[in-house]
Write a structure and sequence with these properties.
Layout: E1 6-11, H1 15-25, E2 29-34, E3 38-43, E4 46-51, E5 74-78, H2 82-91, E6 95-96, E7 101-103, E8 106-112, E9 118-124
Parallel strand pairs: 1-4, 5-9
Antiparallel strand pairs: 2-3, 3-4, 6-8, 7-8, 8-9
InterPro entries: Glyas_Bleomycin-R_OHBP_Dase, Glyas_Fos-R_dOase_dom, Glyoxalase_1_CS, MMCE/EMCE_epimerase, VOC_core
Pfam families: Glyoxalase
Keywords: Metal-binding
Length: 126
Amino acid sequence: MTDEHAHVRYLVDDVQAAVDFYTTHLGFTLLSSAVPAFADVVRGPLRLLLSGPASSAGRAMPDGAVPGAGGWNRIHLVVDDLDIEVTRLREAGVRLRNDIVTGPGGRQILLIDPAGNLVELFQPRR
């Protein structure tokens, strides 16, 4: 089986809030929805599966551990102008985890989605 998308699953507390965040602020398009359990959104080759507590991905593990939202893993979105994106997102009230960080490969900042999952915006060094 082949698919042109890379698939990433994020556990979220509120599927509709997650859909609204990714489609409104980050240019994703809704692919399918079974709110409140699940929705998936796409941006280019990335298919982001947004799984709520009522989804199969939210079920408890055999040892009793319950999957939850948040953590330090993140999707990484490349942008052309990080300063413009940060200004736009701040004006829209999007929560930022840190200030812009500059490293050897470029500049980055972390956003926080409504469930506490991180999204990295990255501008490569020119």
